[in-house]
Design brief:
Blueprint lengths: L3 E5 L4 H12 L3 E5 L8 H10 L4 E3 L6 H10 L3 E6 L6 H6 L1 H16 L7 E8 L23 H19 L3 E8 L1 E3 L18 H9 L6 E4 L11 E2 L1 E3 H16 L7 E6 L5 E2 H12 L5 E4 L14 H7 L7 H17 L3
Parallel strand pairs: 1-2, 1-4, 2-3, 4-5, 5-6, 6-11, 7-10, 8-13
Antiparallel strand pairs: 9-12
Bound molecules: UDP-4-deoxy-4-formamido-beta-L-arabinopyranose.
Subunit structure: Homodimer.
Cofactor: NAD(+)
EC number: 5.1.3.2
Amino acid sequence: MGKKILVTGGTGFIGSHTVVELYNAGYTPVIVDNLSNSSIKILDQIEKIIGYKPEFHEFDLCDERKTAAFLEANPDITGIIHFAAFKAVGESVEKPLEYYRNNFFSLINLLTPYKGKNINFVFSSSCTVYGQPDVLPVTEEAPVKKAESPYGNTKQIAEEILSETATVNSNYKIVALRYFNPVGAHESALIGELPIGVPQNLIPFVTQTAIGKREKITVFGDDYNTPDGSCIRDYIHVVDLAKAHVAAIKRMEEGKSADNYEVFNIGTGKGTTVLEIIKAFESSTGEKLNYVIGPRRAGDIEKVYGDVSKSTRELGWKAELNVDDMMKSAWEWEKYIQKNPF
Ligand code: WQD
């Protein structure tokens, strides 16, 4: 079997897709997850896709003793891809302490045992660190702005923790991937996004409206300074995003890192409005969407999309799937979970 890569949060949306792509690239993924926001059934789904059931350990990475003991018992882990974190923007405003505790304790517990040892570490960051960029497309050199939420703040501070750790210990090789908007599902429709409760994000709300779980979808504002008045985002297919993590691990293994802390934008480099998403969903699936225009959502930024030239140049990675692929795969997944509830 290939090099052992720890995937924290590996039964989650992006984590599960990354486990599949790691295995496809010849790695041996090992999952740690506390199942606080995912289902253990995803393990069986992954096995149906790759024909291999990844090693799975259920515990909370906020438990320093358990985390240290696990890492000590697994000295053959050469890389860590860290997804496990709370990530709901709105919820973070209501529960800031839970977000800071969970997202920082888990990160620090993962890093501490590697003082003086080699480790390749990929961190799940977010374009949310840019806030509303002054210049678009936004590059990695753009200033990080005061976060609009505790969730966004945990990403900004985590990047600082990683950068400062890398500065004092060259044994850490660290890459932070700043995701834009991850959407879609695996082509098998066996894994995808499993929102718990009322979806906060656009695409799950679109597919749940199309399947009849929601009566309608509200477009949060059409009075922005954009071509059709609705917000612009850089939507990226979750499979493309997963492949970027494999590229980051490979870059560190091959010693190509210019610095032992690097940041990359992971998006398509294209901006799409909410109304364009709705039209793309309808045209690519043939499903009609019942939508209304409503007021703006507090905290939304008007437009953001990434300059991804550094990722293409340095990671040798580029998004290959388009918005129609994203819509069709999200719809196939929604139909799958309707027939096979988790
Ligand atoms: C996208 C657009 C909404 C729902 C957040 C986090 C980001 C990442 C992804 C974790 C916006 C509009 C949405 C709806 C709508 N989180 N919308 N009606 O806010 O860009 O990003 O989620 O990884 O870090 O910041 O994503 O999907 O919530 O919204 O009109 O019912 O869709 O206003 O313009 P967002 P989103």
